[in-house]
Amino acid sequence: MIFLVKGSYSINHSSFSKVLAKYVTVNGDVNYKALSSNRSDLDNYLKFLQANPPKESWAKNEKMAYWINAYNAFTIDLILQHYPLKSIMEINNGKPWDLNFITIGNVKYSLNHIEHEILRKDFNDPRIHFAVNCASVSCPKLLNVAYEATTLSIQLDASAKNFINNEQKNRLTPGAIDISKIFDWFADDFRTYGGVIPFINKFASVKVSPDAKVKYKEYNWNLNE
Predict the structure, then answer these.
(1) What average pLDDT does the segment 7-15 reach?
(2) How far, in Å, CA of 209 to CA of 213, rounded?
């Protein structure tokens, strides 16, 4: 749904929230089997995104929320196109993110383009890494509600905090940490917070020493269902 507010368009993602609330648990597990049999609401949301690409007049948070939701919704769509499967890595010879299967406006996109050329490049906010979901066990959980411009910063903080303090994703002690490969793959992105450990300490319940020993967990690409 779109509303005209003070001369600019404002997107409401409540239709995606409806899908997420019905098919995603509070822990981020997705009922792909049930969704594959009843995907009309998801398809309608995808068509809505495709027909309403972001405009220059939109506020930053509106654009960011749009692209985060687009990434997550089209990732679900990609899984459903190939379901049943055990891992997203079974798609396109292990390169599912390179597929140009997304059309928004008149432009073709891949998931990689949305993540790296739009979300990371245009917004420079490492909290994005805990909002986009790659349909895998080791990923930050898929929220069962859509991201909205009006609550975006609160939602991004909550997603980062939830992921960092999840002992299945990261194990933190003051002197040593065993953390997600996300912090290794995208280490440069956390420089805006002073680096990986300062970023972790912003959200962690256990504060980590700047000199802590760092290990990275093996990534589990099994499907998040």
Answers:
(1) 74
(2) 9
